[in-house]
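Good morning N.,

You mentioned wanting to compare the apo and holo forms, so I went ahead and generated the holo version with heme C. This is what I fed in:
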Amino acid sequence: MLVRKLALFSLLLTVTGLVYSHGDVTPQAVDVSTLPKLGDTMLDKNPFEGNKEAIRIGASAYNQNCARCHGLEVISGGIAPDLRKLNMDCEGLANPKKKAQCIGDMDVYFRNSVLGGKVVDGRVYMPSFAAVFSQEAIWAIRSYIETRKYDE
Ligand code: HEC
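and this is what came out, ligand included:
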């Protein structure tokens, strides 16, 4: 437990240092005008998976908003989790129905992480993007990250 606390503490120091060194941490709005409109009701499944335009927008939105913590091209330097690993447990599933269900669960987890941010013991490890991101922006970033495979 103590070890975990210490690890979290040093992680926080690193994240704080990184945030300061990168100056502006205000979430940047994402132009999604070229994507189909999804409405206000949050979807539970990424509707843009494999959509080229969504991937293009997602790559730029990722670089502006996520890369400083999660790493350029989604290769984590260890400060924040490596997001290429999110689907790893699903990809090994042989049953296509179970695999789709697993990726759907990760879609929801991803969406909720971006909307809510990550707060540990009252400290903000990751800001909430709920005020600036439409769901189109969230799914575009998810679609981009899904093109980045851990074992490539
Ligand atoms: C200020 C640094 C920071 C920024 C900016 C940031 N994150 Fe994070 N993110 C973190 C940290 C640290 C964690 C791990 C928190 C924890 O241990 O609970 C995390 C966790 C996550 C998780 C859960 C990962 C897992 O394996 O459980 C997702 C998904 C995620 N971030 C997506 C994003 C996306 C997408 C963006 C950009 C829109 C973003 N983050 C921006 C620091 C950041």
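The helical segments are 2-21, 52-65, 67-70, 88-91, 96-116, 135-145.

Happy to go through it together on a call whenever suits you.

Best,
F.
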